[in-house]
Amino acid sequence: MNTNLGLIGKKLGNTQIFDEDGSVTRVTAIEVGPCTVLGKRTPERDGYSALIVGLGEKREKLVNKPEAGFFAKAGQKPCKTVKEFRVAAEQLEAFEVGQVIKPSQCFAEGSKVDVSGVSKGRGFTGVLKRWGFKGAGTDGHGTHEYKRHGGSIGANMTPGRVLAGLKMAGQYGNKRVTVLNLKVAKVLDDEGVVLVKGAVPGPRNGILTVRGAVKAKAAKNAAA
Q1: I want to staple 41 with a disulfide (CB 3.0 to 4.6 A). Which of 16, 22, 46, 79 is the partner?
Q2: Cβ contact 196:213 at 8 Å
Q3: Termini Cα distance of the chain
Q4: pLDDT of 217
């Protein structure tokens, strides 16, 4: 389980930055704030430790009574997006309810992060686009209308049925995706933006969660 601190962000888009030696780094700009601490989960009361973080504003008429009670108890305005981040119990003491978390408190230039979001929905697609199948490739021998089909999916005798989980046509995208071990290229505290090297899931203005990489330390030890 990832117990590294993280923030909720919004994907702004892709750009590039130039290093001192003139090399180009392609990055994704993520606006990770302002994120406000709305509450805490403690081991004594809840059985685990976590920070409850909110991003954006939400009209009060769109908030139901349980949510309204939660925000009133925290003394904060309703937030559009609310998420919990599991953290170590000692990290809870560093934050207070109502505090705005700065990007530099969670990330540093050169560190690794995991970015999660909902991928772009591409509707119902065939096996060539969804799974990268090569296609039938039968241009002769009397075969027609079969170039983009998936081919055989079972047998008559054994097993006598179509096995579950085969790669077929269907819904492509619109699923939660996590990209691991992306490098932080730059942290812009004043703008509340983090530049991450590489691509992240989802469309522009999509909601993301950015937190310290869960496998970065294990990969470092394995290399050693």
Answers
A1: 46
A2: no
A3: 23
A4: 67
- Find, among 86, 110, 92, 115, the residue nearest to 8 by Cα: 115
Enumerate the domain spans of the chain: 6-106+184-211
Q: What is the pLDDT of residues 142-167, one digit of tens each?
A: 777 888 888 888 888 888 899 999 99
For 38: left if phi > 0, alpha if psi spans -120 to 50, otherwise beta; the answer is: alpha
**How far is 115 from 208, CA to CA, in rounded Å?**
7
Report domain 6-106+184-211's class. Answer: alpha beta
The pTM is what? 0.84
Share of the chain above pLDDT 90, in %: 71
Q: Measured between alpha carbons, how far is residue 15 from residues 10, 111, 149, 185 in Å?
A: 15, 19, 38, 12
